């Protein structure tokens, strides 16, 4: 199984698209 690292966060690779979406939501909540 892969762990991908996005901006310092590790996501189990459920699906790369889903991980990117989660990361985008986290960034949005942090930036706002």
Written description of the protein model:
- The structure is a single chain.
- With 32 residues, this protein is of the alpha+beta class.
- It has one domain.
- It is built from one helix and two strands.
- Strands 1-2 form a two-stranded antiparallel sheet.
- The longest helix is centred in the C-terminal third of the chain and has 16 residues.
- The chain starts with a strand and ends with a helix.
Characteristics of this structure?
2 strands, 32 residues, alpha+beta
What secondary-structure arrangement, pairings included, does this model have?
Blueprint: E1 3-6, E2 9-12, H1 16-31
Antiparallel strand pairs: 1-2
Indicate how many domains the architecture comprises: 1
Q: In which order are the strands of the major sheet placed?
A: 1-2
The helix/strand class is alpha+beta
How many strands in all? 2
Please outline the major beta sheet: 2 strands, antiparallel
Low-confidence stretches: none
Average pLDDT, all residues = 69
Shape category: flat
Which sequence of SSEs, written as H and E, runs from N to C? Answer: EEH
**Contiguous helical run count:** 1
First-to-last CA distance: 33 Å
Query: How helix-rich are the residues, as a percent range?
Result: 40-55%
The percentage of residues in β strands lies in 25-35%
Rg calculated over all Cα atoms = 10 Å
| Multimerization state | single chain
